[in-house]
Amino acid sequence: MSGSSLEDLLARRAAFGMRLGLERMRLLLEQVGHPERRFSTIHVVGTNGKTSTTLYAAAILEAHGLATGAYISPHVHGFGERVQASGRPLDPDILAGAVADVEVAAGVVDAIADEPLTQFEVLTAAAFLALARRGVDAVVVEAGLGGRHDATNVLGAPVVVLTNVALDHVAQLGPTRAAIAAEKLAVVNDSARLIVGGVDAELRAILGTAGLDARITIVDRLGDAPTYQAGNQSLARAAGEAFLGPRFDASVADRALAAVRVPGRLERIGVRPLVLLDGAHNPHGALALARALPVVTEGRRPLVAVLAILADKDIEGVLDALVGRFDAVVVTAVASDRALPADVLCSRVAARGVIVSAERDPADALAVARVIAGEAGAVVVCGSLALLADLAATLRRTAVP
Questions:
Q1: pLDDT category, 325, cuts 50, 70, 90?
Q2: Ramachandran quadrant class, 63 (left: phi over 0; alpha: psi -120 to 50; beta: rest)
Q3: Residue 161 and residue 45 in contact, taking contact as beta carbons nearer than 8 Å
Q4: What angle do CA 244, 164, 263 make, to 5 degrees?
């Protein structure tokens, strides 16, 4: 099989959309022999920073001699990016083979369940199956949405990381931080160790009333980090220590962290001008990016954003956090029925007094931004991981070592 076969296999499930719930997933895993029981896990939940924390934690476990996998979502450069072993995307043929095998079992589940399995459910089961076949000792798993009803909540992980809690996906998870936290904390079993970041007075109070029997470690001082990735690294380090116990070696962990590159999170792909990619798809993530800009852009000017936002996000919150930090903004729209039209976004940015133009095609928007920035400036592509995914082919052609 080829990488395109993987895309084709998963495309068949895209029409079934996103549906929360665990019954279909449990039936599917039973059909394929419960591969998730053949390795131990760290489960990562939270509003922002999940992918970075997942990859950092997996690197730490691998560096300590464990054959380690990682499961992340969404992807930037292709579905194969979501399933990794030993720090690299799994061979696409191996993953496609697992998807094909899971599809056979999915046909059985579709016939007996109330609704067909979703793309995310099939891919999650295939990831577990492929990594089990690989013989990994441990897998660090990123939750897709929330926690309680997410397809990944079948693990009973001994270590859970809650990266932070902010308002996002409120239609599915609830309108308050307390409601959202409850959904995410539902993955924690009574014997688990819980690592928590982004703790302020409100979240501390929420944790105090959550009724958890798990041992909680709060990772403080994340706000002092020069970039938000340093905070995610601190969470991963704490998770690795909780998982490994006496085997944990801080110097080994630090070397592992230094080698990790996270796609679409402060990812550097060009130098003249400097081009950075960052999802920054909600106010919390946008504010983290805004705080990091002076360091990660090295003071270059002009500073230009390529911006697209999904219509169901907190658009005003993202714009409030970000656009005032840029000399110019080029807006565009992603290839999704959830996309905010470029002309609508352009008007909202213009209302803030920022120089703005609109391009319907993301590749054209990136090209225009590069011209505005010139060789001495910097371009930041942000606002949606879907934008980064839409630009993946263009970015591969223009990326530099």
A1: very high
A2: alpha
A3: yes
A4: 75
40-45 β-sheet, strand order: 88-89, 83-85, 68-71, 138-142, 40-45, 159-162, 193-196, 215-218
293 burial type by CB count under 10 A (0-12 exposed, 13-18 middle, 19+ buried): buried
CA atoms within 13 A on the CB side of 56: 26
Query: The tokens 């054209």 sit on which residue?
Result: 364
Amino acid letter, residue 21: G
Amino acid present at 113: A
Facing residues of 306 across strands?
Answer: 330, 381
Structure confidence at residue 336 as a pLDDT band (50, 70, 90): confident
Spatial distance between the Cα atoms of 127 and 29, rounded to a whole number of angstroms = 11
Owner of token pair 């993955």: 187
Give the pLDDT confidence of 180-213 residue by residue, as tens digits.
998 999 999 988 999 999 888 898 888 888 778 7
Closest CA to 72 of 57, 60, 85, 83: 83
Phi then psi dihedrals of residue 277, to 5 deg: -115, 130
pLDDT over 80 (residue 384): yes
Domains and CATH numbers, the chain: 3-258 (3.40.1190.10), 265-398 (3.90.190.20)
Which residue in this structure is represented by tokens 């067909």?
A: 116
Residues of the chain above pLDDT 70, percent: 95
Note the pLDDT tens digit of each residue in 219-249. Answer: 975 544 556 788 899 999 999 999 999 999 9
Distance CA 222, CA 229 (A): 9
